[in-house]
Amino acid sequence: MAIEGKDEIHSGRIRLGMVGGGSGAFIGGVHRMASRLDDHFTFVAGALSSTPEKALASGKELGLDPERTYGSYEEMAEKEAAREDGIEVVAIVTPNHMHFEPAKAFLEKGIHVICDKPVTSNLADAKALKAIADKANALFILTHNYTGYPMIRQARAMIANGDLGDIRLIHAEYPQDWLTEPAEREGSKQAEWRTDPKRSGAGGAIGDIGTHALNLALFASGAELESLSADLDTFVEGRQLDDNAHIMLRFKEKNGVRPKGMLWASQVAPGFENGLQLKICGTKGGIQWMQENPNYLWFTPFGEPKRLLSRNGADALEAATRVSRIPAGHPEGYLEGFANLYCEAARAIRAFRDGKTPEDVVYPTIEDGVIGLAFIEACVASSNADGKWIRLDV
Ligand SMILES: NC(=O)c1ccc[n+]([C@@H]2O[C@H](COP(=O)([O-])OP(=O)(O)OC[C@H]3O[C@@H](n4cnc5c(N)ncnc54)[C@H](O)[C@@H]3O)[C@@H](O)[C@H]2O)c1
């Protein structure tokens, strides 16, 4: 039944398409799960792989309508834009060098874009995409998905409320171990493109996970990165990109305090799987959060005992409860956090349908994407100059 003032096609679930995410791919499947968790989206079209044959086979595997399983993103953008029931949003989940052109094609057709990180494979493209997104009649959402965790929202709200005082120290680390050996020469598709500068860009670990750690640190602390000094290493022989990075950070002054920090990103750290961790300290207190135990946040008001805050527990702030689904003690994890970005996207897209901008929507944008690429390029420039301090070019 039609809703007054709207037709059926625009009143129901949001129609989602996907570029990438074909058979054997990693993050495309996560996006599909995240998009369905809260019933806001329906997955109706895809250009799922790098060749038309693989794309068609992947569409069949996922039960997509063959008419809406496309051999290329160009064909998909063209044909979906022409359909009355065409997709309203596309998820771009291809390797980094294959974000810019599809994002441009869909934005120019007025189709919203949910793009994975890093937003492009170089800073010039990121800036060009920002110019396109700024002009487009469509939204751009970047899946720095760790910003969706309720306890990160809690930390962010506490810092904004002044519970930590003025921020002095911002430390982020993201150690992994899966590239300790040359997996790229042992048949791992994910390792192959991530260690190839043509597809990954100038950053290895700094691009793949360093950008996540930086984005999270900036998101939670509200700080702005000014400059950095980086020491990048490639420990695995023959690898073309960094697999470990130690980076010192200087942030812009706020309330007379200039925060300092450090970032460690590594993919050659045995014993660490997805050890993303954040420590932020101010004049009145500090917080600590670990991605592998995401329902908890340590908070220490200076001079008092440490407190372990839990998701949906006592002291939970509205910023965190609005992205929590179930009571405290029932764990929510990676998929729910990812799905929170899809919920934010859904709120924004539904408001967009009605010509409105919702006030309470929080998600990373193309601006965050530009910062990520500026970070990568500054790290490479600094490390090549033996750790020289480099200002971020944003
Ligand atoms: N947010 C996160 O936590 C997270 C995690 C993993 C990966 N990522 C990002 O997601 C992206 C994909 O990573 P992945 O690990 O899933 O890679 P992957 O290699 O597993 O999958 C990439 C997919 O893209 C397809 N593809 C390549 N070129 C294409 C084209 N021209 N048209 C259509 N499809 C094409 C491949 O066939 C494959 O299906 C990368 O940008 C990566 O940085 C983000």
Q: Considering DSSP H and I runs of 4 or more, what fraction of the residues is helical? A: 25-40%
Attached small molecules: nicotinamide-adenine-dinucleotide
CATH class of the largest domain: Alpha Beta
Order of helices and strands: HEHEHHEHEHEHEHHHEEEEEEEHHHE
- In the CATH scheme, what's the topology name of the largest domain? Dihydrodipicolinate Reductase, domain 2
CATH architectural label of the largest domain? 2-Layer Sandwich
Largest sheet report: 9 strands, mixed
Q: Strand share of the residues?
A: 15-25%
* Radius of gyration (Å): 21 Å
Number of individual domains: 2
Strand order of the largest sheet: 13-12-11-10-6-9-8-7-14
What form results from the Cα inertia axes?
Answer: globular
**Strand segment count:** 14
Mean pLDDT: 96
State the separation between the terminal residues, measured CA to CA.
48 Å
Are there runs of 5+ residues with pLDDT below 50, and where? 1-6
- Backbone structural class: alpha/beta
Oligomer: single chain
Superfamily at the CATH H level of the largest domain?
Answer: Dihydrodipicolinate Reductase, domain 2
- The number of helical elements comes to 13
